Amino acid sequence: MSEFMLERLPHMAYGGDYNPDQWPEEVWEEDVRLMQESGVNLVSLGIFSWSRLEPQQGRFDFAWLDRIMDMLHEGGVRVDLATATASPPPWLSHAHLEMLPVTADGVRLWHGARQHYCPSSPVYRDAARSLVGALAARYANHPALAMWHVGNEFGCHVAACYCDVSAAGFRAWLQERYGDIESLNRAWGTDFWSQRYSDWDEVLPPRRTPTWPNPSQQLDFMRFSSDALLECYDIEHAVLTDKSPGVPVTTNFMRFFKPLDYWKWAEREDVVSDDVYQDPADPEAGMRSAMASDLMRSLGRGRPWIRMEQTTNRVNWRDVNVPKAPGQMRLWSYQAVARGADAVMFFQWRQSRAGAEKFHSAMVPHGRPESSPTWHEVVKLGRELGGLDAVCGSRVTAEVAILHDWDSWWALELPSKPSIRINHVAQLESYYRHLFDANVTTDFARSSDDLSAYRLVLAPSVYLISDEAAAKLTAFVEAGGTLVMSFFSGIVDPFEHIWLGGYPAPFRRLLGLEVVDWLPLSDGEQVVLRFNEGAMARGDVWSEQIAPAGAEVLARFSGSSLDGQPAVTSHRFGQGRAIYVATRPDPAAMARVLKSAVSEAGVKPVLEAPAGVEVVRRSTPRSSMVFLLNHRDGHVEVPLSDPGVNLVDGSEVHRGLFRLGPRGVAIIREGW
Ligand code: GAL
Question: What CATH number labels 613-670?
Answer without folding.
Answer: 2.60.40.1180
